[in-house]
Amino acid sequence: MNTAPNASITDRVAPVNVGAPVTAVHFLKDTAVFVLGEDELMFVAAAGSEARVKAHDGGIMSSASNGTQIITGGDDGKVVLTGADREPQTIATDAKKRWIDQVAIAPNGATAWSVGKSATAREAKGAEKCVELASSIGGIAFAPKGYRLALTQYNGVAMWFPNTAAAPEFLHWKGSHLGVVFSDDGKFLITTMQDAMLHGWRLADNKHMRMSGYAGKVRSLSWTADGDLATSGADQLIIWPFQGKDGPMGKAPAMMAPHKARVTTVAAHPKQSVILAGYADGLVLMLRIKDGAEILVRAGDDQPIAALGWSSRGDRFAFATEEGSAGIVMI
Q1: Do 287 and 237 form a contact (C-beta atoms < 8 A)?
Q2: Which value, to the nearest 10 degrees, does the dihedral of the CA atoms of residues 129, 132, 138, 141 take?
Q3: In this structure, which CATH number among 2.130.10.10, 1.10.1040.10, 3.40.50.1100, 3.90.320.10 belongs to the domain 12-57+137-330?
Q4: Residue 177, number of CB atoms within 10 A of its CB
Q5: Please, are residues 288 and 43 in contact by the beta-carbon 8 Å criterion?
Q6: Does residue 2 have a pLDDT over 80?
Q7: pTM of the entire predicted model
Q8: In this predicted model, what pLDDT tens digit does every residue of 141-152 receive, in sequence order?
Q9: DSSP state of 2
Q10: Cα–Cα distances in Å, from 315 out to 31, 46, 131, 325?
């Protein structure tokens, strides 16, 4: 990979004609799967062949992937699993056809989804458990080990073990909590908030971590190969240090690649200290974290970057804008 400052790999982008707004991109091995705002998933194989698969009758509200399957939730009230065979399987339908707000999938195939204040967890073998919270659920995440879920809501996060009869443990912090992620080692839990900030907990003792200073709402988080947390929400890439036992407490974040537009989407390489940053004006940069070297992937054109994703081997990645301009790069 060329690491010279101001280098460009724009000539290595294989354009993809999605032709519709994109909300996310996931990889199933070497195949990029673009999640469209309406109805479909678009599969683009390494050889360049394309296929569109109808997963929902209407808008796709949320998606997640474990590298083997993609789970999607729609405004048709359906929860759908789609694998490399490109055969969508409806695993649940809300009895009242309410929107499926959030979805999550674990490495072993366990799944979860939310409708309003209710969340359902489904084991890989099919057994389901439900829980009702006091307010609407903003985000769902599986812990990296064990059958445990984090469910965000107003004023905190519910930590739920679906296979026990115990009520969820509640981590309190005032405000509206939206997205949620566990660190890869399971030691920290981080939420995005309605305000322009992040909040976190060290789970060993529930010590609070407040991460602020953003210009806007943080909508995208990605853990780097070194265990730090890259984030959107500012006019430069913000990376919080998590390698010590105290995480970012008492430490300043690293800041990279300042630009005239805000970072909208981030995606860290699965194995190397490299990260992709997409901006509100359509710019995509590949950045080497250790020295800040920048490689241009896509020049800005006022189409906000909506999705970035790496293959599990880290040998290819994909990007897409809100309007449906997309591409795949092999490195």
Answers
A1: yes
A2: -30
A3: 2.130.10.10
A4: 26
A5: no
A6: no
A7: 0.95
A8: 999 999 999 999
A9: -
A10: 12, 11, 40, 21
